[in-house]
Amino acid sequence: MKRFIEQVAIVTGAGSGIGRATALRLAQEGAKVVLADWSEDGLQETVSQLPPETACIERKLDVSDEAGVRALVSEANERFGQIDILINNAGISGGSYPPVTENERADWEQILGVNLIGAMLMIKHVAPHMQERKQGAIVNTASVAGIRSGAGGNPYSASKAGVINLTQTAACDLGGFNIRVNAVCPGLVETGMTKPVFDYARANEKEHKLGGRCELRRYGKPEELAAAICFLASDDASYITGQALPVDGGNTASL
Ligand code: NAD
């Protein structure tokens, strides 16, 4: 299957986990890729796994820095002449989940800054290039935590609920330009972000419990998210916009 030949895709958070798997899948299906991540080592690892013929730009970027976002998007458009796909995937969790009475304003600002404002900034600067050509597909990585909160009023859940809402708003604003905007809501997936959870479970012989609350009784793989993201980015999803698709082994099915 080669759904993205001659298409140009920007992927944020491409240096690890779901972003890396998505960048590799896009490239395997023929896309030219623009890979952005805060981690230069992560980017280099992703680049080393690309099919050899892949046209690629990789850049260190903090998605919450508007000047950096503007520069990356300009460079991508100048180099490749178009931007067809944006995968808005960079994210941080903050690591701990204290109750709302113990929340720190700085933590909220940092997490909302990357997960929500960063996603908005990427759309703000990419969409005008898509509007000119009257085509484009944007896929945001939200979370099942954006559908229903975990324990405590933590900023991660709020940021991901915001990403789902941003997805709907952007779909409304951009639909008239033939630009589709959707989100995926991953359940538990083994990546850099969740490494401490997996390390703890394995050290305590509790790995079998991970994903136990999913109807499929297992956790997810980055490649399974990449498959769903690439579906939403492709013409196979040509009549789908403004949606947030749980990719969670059925975790939210019994809510
Ligand atoms: P990951 O930590 O493996 O990958 C996230 C990547 O984003 C990293 O390479 C990191 O360097 C990059 N990043 C972080 N802050 C950045 C910034 N400010 N600018 C640019 N890059 C930045 O984790 P992952 O699980 O692959 O996460 C991808 C997305 O999936 C995130 O948005 C995350 O919230 C979401 N998600 C993950 C899970 C899960 O179980 N792993 C569940 C739900 C949602």
UniProtKB/TrEMBL annotation:
Provide the protein name: SDR family oxidoreductase
One family name in Pfam for this protein: adh_short_C2
Top-level division of the source organism's lineage: Bacteria
UniProt lists the family membership as follows: Belongs to the short-chain dehydrogenases/reductases (SDR) family.
Read off the Gene3D superfamilies from this record: NAD(P)-binding Rossmann-like Domain
Single GO molecular-function term?
Answer: oxidoreductase activity, acting on the CH-OH group of donors, NAD or NADP as acceptor
Q: What are its GO biological-process terms?
A: fatty acid elongation
